[in-house]
Amino acid sequence: MLEAESFNQYLKTATPDNKQSFHLKSAFLDRLEIRENVYLQRIHYLEELLEKSNQKLVKRKDRIMVKVDKSYKQLVTDEIEYIEAFGDYVKIFINNKYFLVSASLKRIEPMLHSDDFVRVHRSTIVNKKFIRELIPHFNGEYIIKLSTGASLKWSRGYRETALDFMNEFLIG
């Protein structure tokens, strides 16, 4: 830091009379201007990328349209109890029935409201409003009891989301 300050003082004293210093100052200022232009171009590029990525964000929906067999069904996301991976498909459970959909959890998850749904396992997403009970299981896992009577496992890999969920509703 001290060297930079002394160099700046040196450059300030550079005059056309002192040719070596003057040329050093002009070369330094040219390099500084080039660097500034490079950084401005990078910032502009990053701003464009950010704008493009914001346009590509998936909007979370209150309803999703899924292809089931040969027809399309519109599902209200509030009615979805949970979604479970099933090979190359997912099972979307509503009213103790399920729809088998050709999609991945990774594709469906961004469409769901994160305030309403929570990932509990690498193969399961649950609607928070259907969770009635969490029973501690061994190794930091939990058994989830849903209001529909279904039981699911909250794996220890998603323990942090379990603690966040409990803290969100914990009294006392």
Protein described:
It is a single chain. The longest helix has 38 residues, at 19-56. This protein has a domain at 63-169: LytTr DNA-binding domain (OB fold (Dihydrolipoamide Acetyltransferase, E2P), Beta Barrel), CATH 2.40.50. It is α+β, with helices and mostly antiparallel strands and 172 residues long. The strands form three sheets. A five-stranded antiparallel β-sheet has the order 5-4-3-7-6. It has a three-stranded antiparallel β-sheet with strand order 8-9-10, with no helix packed on it. The model has no long low-confidence stretch (mean pLDDT 81). The two termini are 53 Å apart. It has helices spanning 2-12, 19-56, 105-108, 159-169; strands at residues 63-68, 71-76, 82-86, 89-94, 97-101, 117-121, 124-127, 131-136, 142-146, 151-154.
Task: Compile the SSE list and pairings.
Layout: H1 2-12, H2 19-56, E1 63-68, E2 71-76, E3 82-86, E4 89-94, E5 97-101, H3 105-108, E6 117-121, E7 124-127, E8 131-136, E9 142-146, E10 151-154, H4 159-169
Antiparallel strand pairs: 1-2, 3-4, 3-7, 4-5, 6-7, 8-9, 9-10
